[in-house]
């Protein structure tokens, strides 16, 4: 007898292609590419179109919980297994700006040793699977139409130096009051609020993805006490003043000199496509309708998080892409679909201009110490 559960089943009718989707998506990607070429000329080094600045490249492990109920034992999470992972912490701008400029933070995860054919044809044989998260539950520009408006505003300012930086920052983060609401910005002086400790944040997929038979958003939150206590905790002014450009790098580095930390990964399964839409990533799915349910634990042991070799490997060699996944975790909705071309375009340009190979690691040993 099959057990009743309230979760929406994944079928290809969960997604709806939007009017003019291809054209709008093309405009977004072309605009991002043009801005990225300007950034290349500025730095004479190619960087990511978004999340250009990394703050730590970490080695860790992802332990899928044993005995998950069948609605959670899906896709990658269908069997209790421990995988090595590489995690890249970043901030959202597509340029290299001082850490003091508040912005959303990214946590990109590459899981190593994942068997099975992957979604992107060129990476179908890779033994990796990526998840990309940001420290906010929704993407404020939750549809490609909204995203295009933001991107066009960003491009129109892209040549104007300091002003560009301000716009870039705003664009990357959505709206200033969103940041202020989560303590990442100060509404009176938006560019001087560096936000709370980066290791205390909770990170979200923001938009939906397939979760095997179901549809979900995922998140990762602090689990061990030493990172739980950093949630919302202001960074020491002394540390900020010592180096306004790189204090995020420093606090991660200092923390992992001698500490171990764990985080928990959870899935929020869709129970109602009306109130938990897939085609608008700006809508927060109510947790009273469907809570985040734990599926795995992430552990980081003491390590050097930002050696020169690691930075180059994480920034220039690796790429993280939400579509580099098992078909069971395919990203869903128009704001996700546009990412397919956006990440491929950005990554290809970066690897070409920096003359770097694009490598999917077969083993965690490939991550330099
Ligand atoms: C929906 C929620 C989104 C999340 C959670 C997210 C998260 C991230 C993260 C964590 C990174 C850094 C990856 C790394 O460390 O290599 C990243 C990079 C990037 N994001 Fe997003 N992002 C989102 C939406 C978008 C959208 C809508 C676009 C554009 C249409 C976009 C374009 C990019 C690009 C081009 C990169 C750089 C890719 C590369 O050069 O390797 N993202 N994103």
TrEMBL record:
<dbReference type="InterPro" id="IPR020835">
    <property type="entry name" value="Catalase_sf"/>
</dbReference>
<protein>
    <submittedName>
        <fullName>Catalase family protein</fullName>
    </submittedName>
</protein>
